[in-house]
Amino acid sequence: MTEAHVHDVIDGLEVFICGLDERGSIVVFNRPCEQLTGLARERALGINWLDLFAIGERHDHVQSLWAQAAHGRPAGPYEALCRNGRSVRWQFSRWDRHDPVPIALWAVGFDMTQEREAMARAREFERMVALGNLVSGLTHELRNPLNGALLQLRVAERHELRSTHGALSTTAQAITQATAEVRRISMLLDDFLVFVRPVPVQLERIEVRDVIERAIDRARVKADAASVTIALEAGEASAELDATRVEAAVYHLLVNAIDAAAEAIEPMVRLRLEVHHNSIVISIEDRGAGIPDNNAPIFEPFFTTKKGGTGLGLAIVQRVCADLGGAITHERRDGATVFSLELPIVFGAIC
Amino acid sequence: MRVVVISPFPAERGALELLLRDEGHEVTSASTHDEGLRLAISSRPDAIIADTQLPGNDGLALVRELAQHDLHTTTILLCARCTAPELVKLGVICMTKPIDVSALCGYLARRLPAARVA
Question: Counting C-beta atoms within 10 Å of the first and last residue's C-beta, which end of chain B has fewer, N or C?
Fold first, then answer.
């Protein structure tokens, strides 16, 4: 068997193969090794294996594995990162033949990079789920003292108003402010829970109009309080989507539009549903003042220009888009701000 | 009218008692499932407001037991999270905490006769 034959065999394999002499210098270097290190075979020969594949690692550990292999026992696995960040798992074994090339040890490596990345992603997901569960548990527990605090503040407010015969004393105003602050804590918790808990996407065939109407119902009290009318232009359209997520996204866009419309000359919010051949677009339009600064990071969590806002509404919308493979865009046209939520549909919408 | 409040949380229980008395209702309260059940059986109230988290048993079990004792009282459950579909079947109203007190008082005023409006 010639050296050329050896290389023919080992160059075609999808493993990294190095032949080492007694000192650990490379005497055989297959093509996958060349691709891994970016070093041509001729340049690699004579370099110690440790200097290429165990950079920054403890060499004594590898050397003890080599000693083990030299005694006839296959040694390893030994895993290390290469210079280019790929993770390789090596095994070493003795080679008694000295022709065609004087090899003392074979080092055979397997690329573990993808497996390691998948494991890291799975661990991260588990961590997020555990965190989400913790946050969920905390949020629910917090609802009890929040309820107690708000109820007691109500008692204090009534008592104070009675004693001042309805006049707004400093105490009464302080109670009102405290109540608003505690309500804000509650809203923050609600929004944060939605944002941080990775609930698996649940696709089901839904009538998109029904989902939009549910979001409108949720926002009705707010709209009535701000004297804003809500108009919906939507035909029949069914699609396979996650109803809860779509409803949450529409609700948060609607809440923002109501706030903007409340200040407008025409206090109205218009929702429109359009069906394209492989996506639906839900647009929400208001004739309010618009987004003041085009560079503002409006989708960043906790960014808000509203007094008493949680800053999570648009972050939630963006999260829904990421989960469903959709997109959220906004534009200003003819004195109106329009947010458009585009969502892909798995099968054709039926209008 | 007669209302029984059942809650293990003193701040919540105390405030509900005061606020409902202000609305002209006759209010008694308990802090556990068993105590609440005894109170409900003995006083036969027009409405029961109960927390779903009760020492001894949960609010859902309380509702079932009230039905077994032929107490088909207007029942409102206060929940940190209201998800049981069975509650809807039992005709129970759920309010998620923190509750809207005005909505609660309004609901009682509509359901119960002759409450004095403060």
Answer: C
Between residues B117 and B74, which one has the greater pLDDT?
B74
Instruction: Return the exposure string of A272-301: e unless at least 16 CB atoms fall within 10 Å of the residue's CB, then b.
Output: bbebeeebbbbbbbbbbeebeeeeeebbeb
For tokens 């594995």, name the residue.
Answer: A65
Q: What is the pLDDT of residues A19-46, one digit of tens each?
A: 999 899 999 999 999 999 999 999 999 9
Mutate to test the interface with B, among A144, A185, A187 (most CBs of B within 10 A): A144
- Supply the ipTM of this predicted assembly: 0.87
Q: Helices (DSSP H) in chain A: which residue ranges?
A: 3-11, 31-37, 41-44, 49-53, 59-70, 113-163, 170-196, 208-225, 243-262, 313-324
- Which pLDDT score, from 0 to 100, does residue A340 have? 96
Rounded to whole angstroms, the Cα distance separating A279 from A329 reads 14
Structure tokens at A94: 């003795």
Average pLDDT over chain B, rounded to an integer: 83
Going along B9-62, which residue ranges are E strands?
Answer: 26-30, 47-51, 53-54, 57-58
- Measured between alpha carbons, how far is B12 from A214 in angstroms, rounded to an integer? 31
pLDDT of residue B116 exceeding 60, the answer is no
The residue type of A35 is Q
| Identity of the residue in B11, B78, B80 whose CB atom sits nearest the CB atom of A152 | B11
Chain A nearest CA to B80, separation (Å): 5
Residue of chain B minimizing CA distance to A189: B98
B101 vs B104: CA distance, rounded Å: 5
Residue of A nearest to B98 (CA): A147
